[in-house]
Specification:
It is a single chain. The protein is α/β, with parallel strands linked by helices. Among the domains are: 18-46 and 212-297, no CATH class; 319-393 and 582-587 and 613-709, Glycoside hydrolase family 3 C-terminal domain (Rossmann fold), CATH 3.40.50.1700; 409-557, Jelly Rolls (Sandwich), CATH 2.60.120; 726-841, Immunoglobulin-like (Sandwich). The chain contains 19 helices and 36 strands. It has a 6-stranded mixed sheet, with helices on both faces. The protein has a 6-stranded antiparallel sheet with strand order 13-12-15-20-17-18, with no helix packed on it. The longest helix has 18 residues, at 87-104. It starts with 16 loop residues before the first helix and ends with a strand. Residues 758-830 form the Fibronectin type III-like domain. GO terms for molecular function: hydrolase activity, hydrolyzing O-glycosyl compounds. Keywords: Carbohydrate metabolism, Glycosidase, Hydrolase. It comes from Mycetocola tolaasinivorans.
Length: 845
């Protein structure tokens, strides 16, 4: 049944949205349906419509990039938020996003991402919330509610079955109807029915649901029939950026807005299609009405009541404190002694070790990137919280694919003396020369800082030459690299080391190679100090709605970067320190939009580093700084292991708060941690040769697949030890609601030495298999949490929604509830059943 319509905004003089639509000429109506820019919709002053502004999420509101130096609060990765299993905290994050949106002048935040973590190698796994549809739906809808109660639209993404990055604009997800309904559509349905999300993003991929096989930007069955007609979605469907490739099909298929603009497949083409009768004017009017409704909801349509703003004004410092609290609370304790996490005392010497200790990776790669005003590194956090301690830092080898970027060339050692005067003529200066198509020079300028790219606004510019000098003053082998995409020639000291004559366009943005451009490498032995000249001759990348730009990242690896020496130095530091903290993990080169991982192993020699340090410091605390699962072959040998995610801008302080015993790491895994790659139910995310990804795992996604196969992971879904211990004391009688939902009371006892928070997880096991197909061995039905003082007991009430007992019947084209005796399985994770009881369920169709 369609959801009950929600109250709509009303105009102060009674004017309806349909009346406003009728006042707009056809040409303006069609223009409104394509972005005016990459981030703005076209205003129509004649009816009081201001430009609606969109911005990326989901770890912060980046803004539009129209203001130089624009900064944003950077929160922990979305999986870290799900690790709290706390919808109220998620709603507060939505409030924070709304404050940030208002600070940036943004009306629509492209978040949250509620795709299911089907495989751990998925490139955007870290941006998603969980591998379970119920947990994803609850946390995602809470974020939506937090945004929209403050008058800022959430744009839920990516609709639907968009779970791989490899060839993401080409592949078709082949998903049977039942699986689609029970797993992949579930978070979208929940957000539409329960909180009334105002916008949804249509994904790059296609979907074959057995009814229709089409790109999601023109999938009439899933956009129009299911989303709008059946579920009652009254908001806008926005295309992912440059995802739309047709005019008539996408317009008739249910898409409302094409982004970015100007131009694209609609614009004049859509106007012509309307005049030719290929797209009806009623279809156009429906899209315009939806945009006006969204504008009214966010306060961009005159005459309608301004949206409520319970979030108040943005307080950057207060929100930074929230970011720190979230990063600490979302951290998951994978392993620890029975007595709890061993705290560090101020004054103890600390050996801080690891590539992710030398540089904390606070977010993954791709469009979720935001630019915080500051990032607190782990070293800085430890020195803040432990001022009397001596903290030594040992990288223990590099784990990055490319050499370090040279960020500020004028600051390189040897380029300037103590007075700031250049010691090498021309060194530290970047010369940028703009050329036209014939090679004629249009302009030239010298810079002391090169950010690795330049946006091109002069249409005459077709080539750009970027040249700089680097002082090589350390004897040994140096690696000089230039990372670039598109047509280029790269020279070192006048010698050509790399060339590509093929021009590039929007594809380098869509596959994210522009974010981490591959290196052209020159290696050489330096015996005496000398200056090397790097020159990149670049063809301008014409990326459509993404604009025109060039990309050249200068990189340099020195001879002192010797992994053997660095690992040995780290071992020596651990041997003499009172306490040792090892930080390993991934980075944005590994986890990013645009590509999928090919391995779950930690990059570089990090596993070797951990084992060698543990040999001399067996009580070392190991911190994993990663967004998605990685293999931890030393897990069972470690004293204490914390999973700290991509922790956001307050990484250092959050970890230090945990190590000092100031903040409990309350996280519980929202996914399964594999112990090996061979046992992973869906081991890769690569489309088959016919550009299809077949969801043959059906409803057995994530931990359900592990249970079905009978395989044992390193750690199960829901695992997390916190800093105290728990006993599950009693399970109450189930209480049925008229809606078909069930409530159960679970009594827990804190048997540890300090106040803590426990997440109570309730799973269901089926009575028999249904005619609709195999059901999971066990699935999450509900969860709740309680904060309890040491030695005390508390009762946690867990609500099991009616949908948790239902399956999608293809024959009935609807939800049914199979009857029988189910089993309630209650515990701290999916495999550890502490309490169990039967649940008698009557059939309902």
């Amino acid at each position: 049944m369609p959801t009950t319509p929600r109250p709509l905004p009303t105009h102060r003089d009674g004017t309806t949205l349909d009346q406003l639509v009728a006042r707009i000429p056809l040409e303006q109506r069609v223009t409104l349906l394509t972005g005016m820019t990459s981030w703005r919709l076209t205003p129509i002053p004649e009816i009081g419509l201001e430009s609606v502004v969109l911005s990326d999420g989901p770890v912060g509101v980046r803004g539009t990039g129209e203001t130089p130096g624009e900064t944003s609060i950077l929160l922990p990765s979305p999986s870290a938020l799900s690790a709290l299993w706390d919808p109220q905290r998620a709603r507060e994050v939505g409030n924070l996003f709304a404050r940030e949106a208002r600070r940036h002048g943004v009306d629509v935040v492209l978040a949250p991402q509620v795709n299911i973590q089907r495989t751990p190698v998925g490139g955007r796994h870290f941006e998603c919330l969980a591998e379970d549809p119920l947990l994803t739906a609850e946390i995602g809808s809470a974020i939506v509610g937090g945004l929209q109660e403050c008058g800022v639209a959430a744009c839920l993404k990516h609709y639907v079955a968009n779970d791989s990055e490899t060839r993401r604009t080409e592949y078709v997800s082949e998903v049977d109807e039942r699986t689609l309904r029970e797993v992949y559509l579930a978070p979208f349905e929940h957000a539409v029915r329960e909180v009334g999300v105002w916008s949804i993003m249509a994904a790059y991929n296609g979907v074959d649901d057995g009814v229709e096989s089409a790109p999601m930007t023109e999938h009439s069955h899933l956009l129009r029939d299911v989303l709008k007609d059946e579920l009652g979605f009254d908001g806008t469907v926005v295309s992912d950026w440059m995802a739309t490739n047709t005019t008539v099909e996408s317009a008739n298929g249910g898409l409302d807005i094409v982004m970015p603009g100007p131009g694209g497949p609609w614009a004049e083409n859509l106007l012509a299609a309307v005049r030719a009768g290929e797209v009806s004017e009623d279809v156009i009017n429906d899209k315009v009405r939806r945009i006006l409704l969204m504008a009214a909801r966010v306060g961009k349509l005159a005459g309608f009541e301004a949206p409520a703003d319970p979030a108040g004004l943005a307080d950057v410092e207060a929100d930074a404190r929230i970011a720190r609290e979230l990063a600490a609370a979302g951290t998951v304790v994978l392993a620890r002694p029975e007595a709890g996490i061993p705290e560090i005392r101020d004054g103890e010497s600390i050996a801080l070790i690891g590539p992710n200790a030398a540089r904390t990776h606070v977010l993954g790669g791709g469009s979720s990137t935001v630019h915080p005003a500051r990032v607190q590194e782990i070293h800085d956090g430890l020195t803040e919280v432990f001022p009397a301690s001596t903290v030594t830092l040992s990288r223990g080898g590099d784990s990055r694919r490319y050499a370090p970027t040279i960020p500020v060339l004028a600051g390189l050692t040897g380029f300037v003396d103590a007075s700031g005067n250049p010691t090498v003529p021309g060194a530290g200066i970047v010369t940028v020369t703009h050329l036209d198509a014939e090679g004629g020079e249009l302009s030239r300028r010298e810079m002391v800082e090169w950010e690795g790219w330049e946006r091109i606004t002069d249409p005459r510019i077709e080539r750009v030459i970027v040249e700089t000098r680097i002082l090589l003053d350390e004897p040994g082998y140096h690696s000089l690299e230039v990372g670039t995409v598109g047509a280029h020639r790269v020279l070192v000291d006048g010698e050509l080391i790399g060339e590509n004559t093929r021009p590039a366009g929007a594809e380098v943005v869509l596959d994210s190679s522009v974010n981490n451009p591959p290196s052209i490498v020159a290696k050489g032995l330096v015996e005496e100090p000398r200056v090397a000249v790097l020159r990149a001759e670049l063809g301008v990348i014409h990326a459509g709605g993404y604009g025109d730009f060039v990309r050249a990242e200068f990189r340099h690896r020195t001879p002192s970067e010797d992994a053997d020496l660095e690992i040995s130095a780290a071992v020596d530091a651990a041997r003499v320190a009172d306490r040792t903290v090892i930080v390993v993990g991934t980075n944005e080169e590994v986890e990013s939009e645009g590509w999928d991982r090919t391995t779950l192993a930690l990059p570089g020699r990090q596993d070797e580093l951990v084992r060698r340090v543990l040999a001399v410091a067996p009580e070392a605390i190991i911190v994993v700084n990663a967004g998605a699962p990685v293999l931890l072959p030393w897990l069972n040998d470690a004293h204490a292991v914390l999973w700290a995610w991509f922790p956001g801008q307050e990484a250092g302080g959050a970890l230090a708060d945990i190590l000092a015993g100031r903040a409990e790491p309350q996280g519980r895994l929202p996914w399964t941690l594999p112990g090996d790659e061979a046992s992973v139910p869906v081991p890769h995310a690569v489309p088959e040769a016919d550009d299809r990804i077949r969801y043959t795992d059906g409803v057995h996604v994530g931990y359900r697949g592990w249970l079905r196969a009978g395989n044992t992971p390193a750690l199960p879904f829901g695992h997390g030890l916190g800093w105290t211990n728990w006993r599950y004391a009693a399970l109450g009688e189930p209480r049925w609601e008229d809606s078909g939902a069930v409530e159960v009371d679970v009594q827990i006892e804190n048997t540890g030495a300090r106040t803590g928070r426990e997440v109570v997880q309730v799973y269901l096991e089926p009575p028999v298999q249904t005619p609709e197909g195999e059901r999971p061995v066990r699935w999450l039905a509900g969860f709740g949490a309680g904060t309890v003082a040491a030695g005390d007991r508390a009762t946690v009430t867990v609500r099991i929604p009616a949908r948790a007992l239902e399956v999608w019947s293809v024959a009935d084209a609807g939800w049914i509830r199979p009857g029988g005796t189910y089993r309630l399985a209650v515990g701290p994770n999916v495999t550890e059943v502490a309490l169990a009881a039967p649940l008698e369920v009557s059939e309902r169709r």
